[in-house]
Amino acid sequence: MAATAGIIPATFSSAPLTTFDRSFSAALRAFRDEGVGDINADRQAGSITGRAGSTPISAAFRRQADGTLNVQFASPDPKANDLLQRIYNAYNRRMGR
Length: 97
Prior knowledge:
This protein is of the alpha+beta class and 97 residues long.
């Protein structure tokens, strides 16, 4: 009798993304969706920075006392309000909202 190769079923599970990881990834992708370049993403610091042309854009992530996560998109340039709104909308789409 010839030996046959056996198949051993294996299950791999991965830890679900934390709220922070999911939000951080969604914001980073939203920056890219809207053409923000020169992106620097620092998960440890909870910040993403980039440039749209010469305009600096940032996202800051802060845990609240109640355990929720606050994400704030900002730019010192008041002319960037439309871009910030588009980034915010892209972020919400990526978060499934």
